[in-house]
Amino acid sequence: MLDDAAESVELDLTGLKCPLPVLRTRKALRALGAGRVLVVTCTDPMAMIDIPNMVREEGAALDSAERDGDRLRFRMRASAKPPHS
């Protein structure tokens, strides 16, 4: 079994505005190996729509999406499936 702490990558995109959070999240997700976890923190309200949609398009799995005040936190798992072109 994989240790999620050792297999996860944290990406802090606090303060960035659309479209930067989703673009940087996509780039980081594509760079991960299959099964690796990416945890993204951001403050752009549009990310609550954009990031889950992008994760689905990439064939990855969105494990969680949480809001704590202005801060959004997403936990996703990279897939071995190639992304759509």
Automatic annotation (TrEMBL):
Q: Which UniProt keywords apply?
A: Transferase
Q: Write down the PROSITE patterns for this protein, in alphabetical order.
A: UPF0033
Q: Does the keyword Kinase apply?
A: no
Q: What class of enzyme is it?
A: transferase
Q: What is its EC number?
A: 2.8.1.-
Q: Where is the UPF0033 domain?
A: 11-35
Spell out the InterPro entries in the cross-references.
TusA-like (IPR001455), TusA-like_sf (IPR036868)
Q: Which GO molecular function entries does the Swiss-Prot or TrEMBL record give?
A: transferase activity
In terms of Gene3D superfamilies, this protein maps to: TusA-like domain
The yes or no answer to whether the keyword Transferase is present is: yes
> PANTHER family under this entry?
SULFUR CARRIER PROTEIN YEDF-RELATED
State the similarity comment: Belongs to the sulfur carrier protein TusA family.
Record protein name field: tRNA 2-thiouridine synthesizing protein A
Annotated organism of origin = Methylobacterium brachiatum
